[in-house]
Amino acid sequence: MGTSNYYKCGKCEETITASLIDITGMSSKVMAVKCNECKAIGDSTIEQHIDWNDETVILTPSCNECGSTNVVKWDKKCPKCEDKMSNIGIALLWD
Ligand SMILES: [Zn+2]
Ligand SMILES: [Zn+2]
How many domains does one find in the chain? Predict the structure, then answer.
């Protein structure tokens, strides 16, 4: 079971939800990514475990908003003003 956290910018009050970097859940591994196309930040599944044949599939990270694969690992900077965002608590649990 993994968690996503709320991150808030100290400057412009922008709040986003992203997982802790490189966390592993029961059946998948996610990474917080930033989209170079639409600047959205979100969790992208990078590894998915297939139960029936016990195989792990490596997935290309992509943007949840626009579907672009032009994404980079999120550096914890605010998408609006580039200020460092701070973790303000757990948003949700996933598995
Ligand atoms: Zn900001
Ligand atoms: Zn995007």
Answer: 1
In this structure, which ligand is nearest to the CA of 16?
Answer: 1
User: What would the two tokens of residue 71 be?
Assistant: 């994404």
pTM for the predicted model, two decimal places: 0.80
**Of the ligands numbered here, which is closest to the C-alpha atom of 72?**
2
Measured distance CA(69)–CA(87) in Å, rounded: 26
Distance 14 CA to ligand 1 centre (A): 5
- pLDDT for position 29: 86
- Residue 60 tokens read as 């290309």
Q: Ligand 1 mean position to 57 CA, how many Å?
A: 35
> Could you read off the pLDDT of 35-86 as tens digits, one per residue?
999 999 999 989 998 989 999 999 999 999 999 999 999 999 999 999 999 9
